Amino acid sequence: MAGLIKREDIDEVRQRTDIKEVVDGYVTLKGAGLGTFKGLCPFHDERSPSFTVRPQVGRYHCFGCGEDGDVISFVQKQDHSSFQEAVEKLAARIGYELRYEDGGTGPNREEVGRRQRLLDAHKIADEFFRAQLLTPGAAEARNFLFGRGFDRAAAEHFGCGYAPQGWDALLKHLRGRGFTDAELKLTGMFSEGNRGIYDRFRGRLIWPIKDIAGDTIGFGARKLYEDDQGPKYLNTPETTLYKKSQVLYGIDLAKKSIAKDRQLVVVEGYTDVMACHLAGITTAVATCGTAFGTEHIKIARRLLSDDGTGGEVVFTFDGDAAGQKAALRAFEEDQRFTAQTYVAVEPTGADPCDLRLSRGDDAVHALVQSRRPLFEFAIRTTLKQFNLDTVEGRVQGLKASVPVVAAIRDGSTRTGYCQALTGWLGMPDPNEVLRLVNAEVKNAARRQDGGRTPGPQGAGRPDHGAQHQGAPNHAGAPGVAAGPPLEAVPSFHRPDPRDPVASMERQALEVALQAPSLLAGAVWDRFAEARFATPAFQAVHDAMRATGPGMVTDPVRWVEHVMHEVPEPLRPLVSELSVVPLPAHTEEAVLKYCRDILSRLFELQITRTKADKMGQLQRLDPSADPETYQRLNRELLMLEMERRALRAET
Q1: Domain shared by 207 and 277, yes or no
Q2: Which cofactor does it need (predicted)?
Q3: Which of 202, 223, 242 is the last residue of a domain?
Q4: What is the CA angle 480-486-490, rounded to 5?
Q5: Is 117 found in the same domain as 100?
Q6: What is the number of other CB atoms lying within 10 angstroms of the CB of residue 365?
Q7: Which stretches of the chain drop beneath a pLDDT of 50?
Q8: CB 374, CB 334: distance < 8 Å
């Protein structure tokens, strides 16, 4: 089991990784000044690029929505991965072997290399299948897609492909690309017989199944020909890459919408996902040959930020008995969410693909809009089994529904459904229902605990809020103690940009964050002694002094440490200052600009110090304290000489 990654390795991965190369995989970046790049923000919709990347300091900042961080937090947010997963992915990218605390282990290079070979094989197979869909032999596959309302553009968007008839078309292709049979056996794309391995998918329409990061890890295949003796749908079997209990088809396309809209729509098939997305329901995903279970919930919770502040999961099921059974099965998993869970059932039995084909996009939207709370659906479905027009039917319905209501873990919600059940049964007294439900809850607890007295409600439930390594703070770094509560932090206001002193102080901090090597040696002493009139800027300066001069030769670690030292409300400001383009277009011009700004800062400090000493001098009686009078005059002379020397340097 993997332990915590050593902090020095995390720093090394962060430092060695080129953030621009990583961001380029998600965002088109263009130069915006020396050492600065801009693009459209991947975290919010915008027309003009405000997403800024500064590779020299290893950070990004969006001046539109305020999202910011380093390369690790970027991968976390884009792939919706944990901190440790992001570090391991970046380490594999640069070939760096991580070390773990307490004797823990992580993926070694051999395992990482084997996994990468499997991913490469799937990527090549994906490209092969997609190319085959355009060949004459794939006419039946194209007809299938067209008959369900999907044109060529839709097929390309979802990566649909075709597996040729025959036994070894893909096998020959991958062998030709340098893969051994031993490697190909591990992919799940081949079956094995007496004469060796052969293509698992033959004469079928293909959908690539991808993980949340967008890597192809398996395939789903639909039968097209009558002489195909296999099942209607055939998926990749369990492999080291493909585990159906952890796979959601369409998650790579839906993840941004799910995170943005705080909604996850679960449908039943590949074409249903396609239909939903094309109809504008871009939060739709599907399980792959298994029920929506615990591992799927982990993915959903991560995307929805399932923290009790909102979000919804909508299950769509057919209106037949099998669909109702699937919905009731989902009821058992529902309470792992704090998000609201709903069921949307189409009474005619039509799935989203059929709805779109027969009644258009609006019908798909209407299906999702018709969602009902899953608890309500479960109870009402139970009541449908009985004739509630009779006393006997109502009693039977009550007895059958009580265990369903009792299974609701949240006490307030359970009480609410006791009252609702009273109304659905047409009973006059909700207290009787509540009494029966509470008795059932206690009985269920005794059965579960082997007769022991049940503890407080919710005892023993998994702590979904438990902190793991790398639970990101705003700076995206692990292992850092939380700062003081916001009410204990002074109030910082954004300075008026028209204030010349505040403007100069801001420029000085931009230079100090982006070109910290200029602070080395004696310059550090001057900088450390500086005082800022703007409270927010003084707090940032205090964080720099707390970080110390030891980091100034390493811009990435310098900014990272300043981030940790500054009060939480000011971290976005530090991020902004560290990436804003400096007004120069050559290395020489940048160097001159930075030195000029620091000289202006130091000259301002000299002016302030001179003013303080002049005030002391004016208040002093020379005859009463001649020594102090002479000392202040000498100090004023030294300050003036220092000011002139600064001007001479610039």
Answers
A1: no
A2: Zn(2+)
A3: 242
A4: 110
A5: no
A6: 16
A7: 1, 451-490
A8: yes
